[in-house]
Amino acid sequence: MSFFVRPAGSGDRYDFDGTTFTVKADGGDTEGRVAVMEQEAPAGLTVPAHTHEGEDEMFYVLEGELAGFCGDERWTASAGAFLFLPRDVEHGFEVVGDAPARALTIVGPARFDALVVSQGRRLDG
Fold it and tell me: What pTM does this model have?
């Protein structure tokens, strides 16, 4: 593992279930410890209930508003909010309002990034 900088706007981009993910750091960059992706989702996008087995997921909301659940808890988060969704707990969310949402998605250990790459559609440029 070595030092790197990914300048603004850089990183491999994928369309994954209607959301654009830009990979900033993947498991290969961090010896599998963590992955960081910028996520851009359109207004109205719904991510259905799912579970990340053995992987924590975090969001730092950059723009827009998200609303969802984690286990029995309901939440709403807008720009500047940070969410921690623990591993093995069912969760889901949607982009609320008329604007798209943008968030940093952080997972650890890194697994979800490999799913985005293997099942997503690579976007050019």
Answer: 0.92
5-12 contacts at long range (C-beta below 8 A, 24 or more positions apart): 11/37, 11/38, 12/117, 12/122
Domain assignment of residue 28, given as a range: 13-123
Any idea what the CATH number is for the domain that residue 64 is in?
A: 2.60.120.10
Residue 3 lies in a domain: no
pLDDT tens-place values along the chain, 125 residues long: 789 999 998 999 999 999 999 999 999 999 999 999 999 999 999 999 999 999 999 999 999 999 999 999 999 999 999 999 999 999 999 999 999 999 999 999 999 999 999 999 999 85
The structural domain count of the chain equals: 1
75, part of any domain: yes
- Yes or no: say if 85 and 70 are a contact pair by the CB < 8 Å rule: yes
